[in-house]
Design brief:
The protein is built from eight helices and six strands, in the order H-E-E-H-E-E-E-E-H-H-H-H-H-H. The chain is an alpha/beta fold and 206 residues long. Strands 1-2-6-5 form a four-stranded mixed β-sheet, covered by helices on one side. Helix 1 crosses helix 3, helix 3 runs antiparallel to helix 6 and helix 7 runs antiparallel to helix 8.
């Protein structure tokens, strides 16, 4: 079992407020809800993802990528008398996307500062606007609902219909003042540029 299993399951349980008594199997045929593991060694190799290990399957009218498989014949959910099996490894696939594994592989093999969006699986499969992991979780939630006779829904903000999460991206935490000062100089604001440098020198810059 690869290390990302616990991370993804914990993420899912928090999002859906799933009590511990509802178990999720991973390669456990005795579990009421079982996810078939792919047995992939991909996360041990630090090699670029092979698109041949991907198939597109329809889930409620949405075409979803399923990783680490070449089988297009399996149904996503398989129900027996006592259990529900998810026949594609949505845990490994969710970890691939949530961890930014493509960037980890890239930076492990090159000194270039940035991973190019054009090289990403999202770009190549034209799924940039598709919340893939959300749909993986939806599949898992439906399997649990079927197995335990529940109506499992995400509840991230209690009863609120939505939430706002302001965020930002900082690339140069310690040298951003240089870019600020250069910008001011290019625009002829010499006193402002001097002020930026002054605040940086006395550790008062933003």
């Amino acid at each position: 079992m690869y290390p990302g299993y616990a991370y993804i399951i914990d993420y899912f349980r928090r999002l859906y407020h799933l009590p511990e008594q509802f178990s999720i199997g991973y390669g456990d045929p005795t579990a009421k809800v079982n996810i078939l593991p792919s047995r992939t060694s991909y996360f041990d190799t630090f090699t670029p993802f092979d698109a041949n290990q991907l198939v597109m399957k329809d889930w409620k009218g949405v075409s979803l990528p399923f990783l680490f498989t070449d089988s297009t014949e399996l149904s996503i959910l398989q129900q027996t008398d006592n259990s529900i099996t998810i026949q594609y490894d949505i845990l490994a696939a969710a970890f691939f996307f949530l961890s930014g594994w493509q960037e980890i592989v890239y930076h492990n093999t090159t000194l270039a500062p940035r991973y190019a969006y054009s090289d990403s699986l999202q770009n190549k499969q034209d799924i940039t606007d598709l919340p893939v992991v959300y749909y993986y979780f939806e599949i898992l939630a439906e399997a649990i609902s079927m197995a335990y006779d529940l109506n499992l829904k995400p509840a991230p903000w209690e009863d609120a219909p939505f939430a706002i999460f302001p965020s930002h991206d900082i690339d140069t935490c310690n040298t951003g003042w240089k870019q600020d000062a250069a910008f001011e100089l290019r625009n002829g604001r010499f006193f402002s540029a001097a002020g930026v440098a002054y605040r940086a020198f006395f550790r008062q810059d933003d």
